[in-house]
Amino acid sequence: MKVSIIGGATGSGKTTVILKLAKYLNSQGEKIGVIVQESGEVDYDEKTLTELGIKTREVNSVCIPCSLDTDIRSNLLTIQEEFNPDTVFIEAEETVLPHKLKADLERMELTDVELLPSVVLVDSPEFETEDDQLTEYVRKQTAGAEIVCMGKTWMDSDEHANAVKELIGKLNPEAKIVDYPENDDEDFPAELLG
């Protein structure tokens, strides 16, 4: 079972990206699970999830790391046992560091689990271009991500999008920076699919 941890600020497109990836993988014959850690409303349409055969588990806690051993591990094991998905997406709320969550899961040595690179989504038009303008969480998420996925670049000016990429490169020279496509018929960044 592959596990993909996707984080980012509220409104960065996490739910949209996960649903698009889930639809694509489902069309390839994969079974998909989603674990949502959110303190507010969950934006998954039950009809869409049912049509795709996606199983979800919601984690209602203040933060994933605080309840990791009980909630996330338990939910991963339960979804693995009950549904045996090929891929599980964990949608982390904006205050969670996906790379730290991945490191915690690695230490758990879960059986038959392959952890994919940690992903952080950024909303290109809304992303600041100066380091001192970023919030602490955005800076830490970006600096620790293995993949930074830029969304809504088609709504941004080339100048601003390039400045965002430059700042991300300074914060995290090791990260792969990919653009998420505007249209469903465009190819997904292969890095997001493992």
Automatic annotation (TrEMBL):
Pfam families: cobW
CobW/HypB/UreG nucleotide-binding domain: residues covered: 3-178
InterPro entries: CobW/HypB/UreG_nucleotide-bd, P-loop_NTPase, Zinc-reg_GTPase_activator
One GO location term (cellular component): cytoplasm
Stated name of the protein: CobW/HypB/UreG, nucleotide-binding domain
Organism: Methanolobus vulcani
Taxonomic lineage from the root: Archaea, Methanobacteriati, Methanobacteriota, Stenosarchaea group, Methanomicrobia
